């Protein structure tokens, strides 16, 4: 595996690019302060745009590092910032990454995250050389389940009442998924 970082990626409808601190207002207004978006996430709505700004300042710096994979999702036609997608790689020796993503609810159900994740997986397996990509989602988060399923991440088990959602306080089952490099290339054929 050779780290290549948050390179600009492009699909039919989307531009995936690095973060800028100046994205804060748009990200806050579009999804980072929306409890419907954060319902199953590890963080609660930001509540104040300054929280978003402080985060994006860190992301701007990180997304210039070669071992960081952290994209802002821009809808090309409207030049609108609509979401984020990340691959966390904690250990180079394992050659394993974990995906995370979220998006403005105005755009849900149009195949956008499937388009973004497909391109990120292509980049991770074909250009960077990851061995395996993992994902996990709340069992009741059907949208995320479908995105991972459509992108070839196989269900590998469920952890019962594993996660307590900061937004709602509810405990949910977590489904673990993953795709191996060999499966990615096999599916591509
Ligand atoms: C999860 C999320 C990224 C999905 O993005 P998206 O662009 O809407 O996903 P897609 O349109 O590519 O695919 C979603 C599929 O699930 C379906 N779906 C979504 N919610 C559903 C529900 N409650 N019941 C049944 N189907 C549902 C959509 O109709 C679509 O169906 P298709 O496979 O037949 O096309 C988006 O809903 C989101 O940002 N949610 C909040 C943050 C989040 O949960 N992130 C993931 C944490 S693991």
Q: How would you characterize this protein structure?
A:
The structure is a single chain. The protein has helices at 24-32, 35-38, 49-62, 112-128, 142-150, 181-188, and strands at 9-10, 14-17, 69-75, 80-88, 96-103, 132-138, 154-164, 171-180. The protein is an alpha+beta fold. The model has no long low-confidence stretch (mean pLDDT 97). It starts with 8 loop residues before the first strand and ends with a helix. An 8-stranded mixed sheet has the order 1-2-3-4-5-6-8-7, with helices on both faces. Bound molecules: coenzyme A. Coenzyme A is lined by residues 37, 40-41, 101-103, 108-114, 137, 141-144, 146-147, 150.
The ligands found in this model are: coenzyme A
| Termini gap | 22 Å
Task: Name the helix and strand elements from N-terminus to C-terminus, one letter apiece.
Answer: EEHHHEEEHEHEEH
The DSSP helix count reads: 6
Compute the gyration radius: what is it? 16 Å
Instruction: Give the % helix.
Output: 25-40%
CATH architecture call: 3-Layer(aba) Sandwich
Q: CATH superfamily name? A: Gcn5-related N-acetyltransferase (GNAT)
Structural domains: how many: 1
What is the residue-averaged pLDDT? 97
Q: Class, according to the CATH hierarchy? A: Alpha Beta
Q: What is the tally of beta strands?
A: 8
Oligomer: single chain
SS-based structural class? Answer: alpha+beta
Largest β-sheet summary: 8 strands, mixed
- CATH fold node name: Aminopeptidase
Identify low-pLDDT runs: none
Strand order of the largest sheet: 1-2-3-4-5-6-8-7
